[in-house]
Design brief:
This protein is mostly beta strands. The protein has three domains: 2-68 and 107-167, 3-Layer(aba) Sandwich (Rossmann fold), CATH 3.40.50.200; 173-280, Sandwich (Immunoglobulin-like); 304-496, no CATH class. It contains five helices and 30 strands. The protein has helices spanning 2-6, 109-126, 132-141, 150-153, 160-167, and strands at 11-14, 35-41, 57-62, 75-80, 95-98, 101-106, 173-175, 179-183, 190-197, 204-212, 217-219, 228-231, 237-243, 251-262, 268-280, 304-305, 318-320, 327-338, 341-349, 353-355, 380-385, 388-389, 396-401, 407-416, 425-432, 438-444, 455-461, 466-473, 478-480, 487-491. The strands form six sheets. Strands 16, 17, 22, 23, 24, 25, 26 and 30 form an eight-stranded antiparallel beta sheet that branches. Strands 18-19-20-21-27-28-29 form a seven-stranded antiparallel beta sheet, with no helix packed on it. The longest helix has 18 residues, at 109-126. The two termini are 41 Å apart.
């Protein structure tokens, strides 16, 4: 062990398995200082009841749970079906046929150690100049925190995405990349928001400055939206531009926003220039390019399509009365397939999403979360998952079939629930097509000044193991950009495996 470590080898070993619901110390060789001792998490991302404990425990990784009654809660091991007695059952759920081979379903810290080893190899391949010590430090530093103490979960659960994102070169990117507005003479003041993003978990500090010729534009520069701040993946920055065109004469007025970035050492990390053009009393012709969402963690890019808004066939629409926190089962007019599952009904929630099948949850999950969401819904499509209340104002929730046979769930003029600030109204459609494709159409969306309201948009299945995200903002992070009014997105059936 000492020789391998001295020669730059990353050593990984299973922490060891205890009798269920008991504790036992970390086994050797995992207990050596030179070795990463890997404990096990279960299907629900909790510490497995059999995983060894102690100060030597370093990190957790999926190893399966003994409580699971199906193969989904277990891990495919390297044991062949022929490895008796390692694979005790040669029928039922104790093995899986994969790509022509057969492998035992097992649980244990041995499986967790294999997952950690594969993840370490992936990360090391992306940054081959790292030493084994550097890689070990990175995996521990980016692990997802868990509730229990370090003797039970080490640094937390392995997070491969966080490790890879930390290796990405930080870069400051503004959205939009330029601002062009056309207003009539005498228009009252209004605000525009520029989102600053960084694809890396390595934080950049930014400072924004503004140059213009006649004082018609300035930064809001509030505590929530300062002209200097930090930005990293999942935590964008926002610049709010206050534009006062009221006294401007007819013509073209130009300004520039310059944003300068520095890295954690204070070194210059680039600058971006954002042109701002205001046409007063003139028409402005703009060609909008397709929006591509922030897709880290997704399968294939979701590109916005030409806007479409579906209408009912001659049978009309069915209007359902939904109140705050309510839901209702809805039959589907055709079998709808997501992944390897076929559904004949769905459950429609007042909070802007549908789940498949129509099995009701104990309560509607009003507080949205970003994918993956493993403990909420087995399969779901999120048009605008947020705390909504269709019973307020003129809100209407309905469903119908189109002339082409698509099934549409429509939220029209639905307001945010009481207590949501700032209040807003949203109109969107969730469209299911017989071939398994999904469309999300947005007719109206909240006006954005500063950060967008919390919401989750996209689809997931298999308890969140597969997902495709368009946008999400929850209490912890923000990913991607919210849709614009009159924008549509297509999720192909293969996008969700």
């Amino acid at each position: 062990v000492e020789y391998a470590a001295a020669n730059g080898v990353l050593l990984v070993a299973a922490a060891g398995n205890c009798p269920q619901y008991t504790t036992c110390p970390v086994s050797w060789p995992a207990a050596y200082d030179e070795v990463i001792a890997v404990g096990s998490t279960d299907y629900w991302d909790q510490r497995a009841s059999y995983s060894a404990v102690g100060p030597e425990l370093e990190i957790m990784a999926p190893g399966g749970g003994l409580e699971s009654t199906s193969s989904a809660g277990q891990i495919y091991s390297a044991w062949s079906i022929e490895a008796v007695p390692k694979c005790m059952e040669q029928s039922g759920s104790d093995y899986q046929l994969i790509d022509g081979g057969s492998y035992c379903n097992r649980v244990g810290t041995s499986m967790a150690a294999g997952v950690l080893s594969g993840a370490a190899a992936l990360v090391w391949s992306a940054a081959p100049d790292l030493t084994a010590y550097d890689l070990r430090t990175l995996l521990n530093a980016t692990a997802k925190p868990m509730v229990l103490g370090t003797d039970y979960v080490g640094h937390g659960r392995l997070d491969v995405q966080a490790a890879m994102l930390t290796l990405l070169t930080p870069k400051l990117t503004p959205y939009p990349r330029y601002v062009q507005e056309s207003v009539p003479v005498g228009t009252q003041p209004f605000s525009l928001t520029v989102t600053l993003e960084n694809p890396s978990l390595a934080t950049l500090a930014y400072t924004a400055t503004l140059s213009d010729t006649d004082g018609w534009i300035r930064f809001a520069d509030t505590a929530d939206y300062p002209v200097d701040g930090d930005v990293r993946y999942g935590a964008p920055g926002y610049l709010v531009l206050e534009i006062t065109p009221t006294d401007l004469v007819t013509g073209t007025h130009s300004a520039h926003v310059t944003v300068t970035a520095t890295d954690a050492t204070g070194a210059f990390a680039g600058a971006v220039d954002l042109p701002v053009t205001l046409l007063v009393g003139r028409s402005l012709y703009i060609r909008y390019l397709p929006f591509v969402g922030n897709l880290i963690g997704n399968s294939t890019p979701i590109v916005s399509r030409a806007f479409r808004w579906e209408a009912p066939n001659d049978d009309g629409r069915v209007v359902r009365t939904l109140t705050d926190g309510s839901n209702v089962g809805v039959p589907l007019p055709f079998p709808f397939t997501m992944g390897d599952s076929e559904y004949t009904d769905l459950r429609l929630y007042s909070d802007g999403f549908i789940s498949l099948p129509a099995i009701a949850l104990a309560a509607s999950p009003q507080e949205n979360r970003c994918f993956p969401v493993v403990d909420t819904l087995p399969a779901a499509i999120y048009g605008w998952w947020a705390h909504l209340d269709p019973s307020r104002g003129n809100g209407r929730v309905s469903y119908f079939q189109t002339n082409s046979g698509d099934f549409v769930v429509e939220f029209m003029d639905v307001e945010s629930a009481a207590g949501v600030e700032p209040a807003y109204t949203v109109s969107f459609q969730i469209v299911l097509q017989p071939e398994g494709d999904i469309w999300l159409n947005y007719l109206t969306v909240p006006d954005q000044t500063g950060a967008p309201p919390p919401a989750t948009l996209g689809a997931s299945r298999a308890d969140g193991r597969f997902y495709n995200r368009i946008f999400c903002r929850d209490a912890d992070a923000t990913y991607g950009l919210p849709p614009a009014a009159r924008e549509s997105f297509e999720l192909k059936e293969e996008d969700l495996y």
